[in-house]
């Protein structure tokens, strides 16, 4: 960030709070306290009415306001994503207030940014959201795909599939992205497969936006694609807790039951599955006996209790 941009950003930051400490500004912009002192002095010399109180920080004279702030293209797109996430993660009333505030912020966008948000509005969907896990190591791919969607550019990628684990190079025409079950997914037209595919963002090992443009007119909307997938298969997220000594018994059969990922937590491993059949999955789990614990969903635990009762009754 050059000095002019930093001075503008400091002034915007001062408007956002009643009092701002120099250390807070230094941490945000990654500069020394001496640099912040010099920048604030430059703003004062230029006529900005800044009040500095020892031990308190800086504040602007009451009533002083900047003219409307100009947002960058990336910042405008980030607001759209935030709106989608907040809609699913906050309560109805809080979500309403956030939307009203966002409308006021959007009102100061340039016409080109307003048009951009309208154009990409339907290419981002949040189906289910956990606010503590909405973004992970897929964030770089997310930004690249968001840019490609807004610019209608083909993306050259290297993608690693789950089962079997294979690495392929693909050219994709991104259509939209959606968030579900703690992951971001890309829906795109794959030029290699000559068909539409869904890709998990964190499984792209490489990605590069090319200069090749494509037309969205020939592609279905993200919503119509999601409706089609939902109609074909209703997936359930299932999490099993598996002690270390039992992992070896699940290795050969996990992929047949919708295995997605796993995470080491202390002396156990939490395994995540996506499966459309609660009945089929519970009958697999019951064969594992005392080697797993069902963490979620409750409907799976309830069905396991019922099935165990039915077995006991049958055996007299």
From TrEMBL:
Signal peptide: none annotated. PANTHER family: PROTEIN PAFB, PTHR34580. Pfam families: HTH_11, WYL. It comes from Algoriphagus antarcticus. Residues 3-58 form the HTH deoR-type domain. Keywords: DNA-binding, Transcription, Transcription regulation. PROSITE patterns: HTH_DEOR_2 (PS51000), WYL (PS52050). One of its GO terms (molecular function) is DNA-binding transcription factor activity. Coiled coil: none annotated. This is Putative DNA-binding transcriptional regulator YafY.
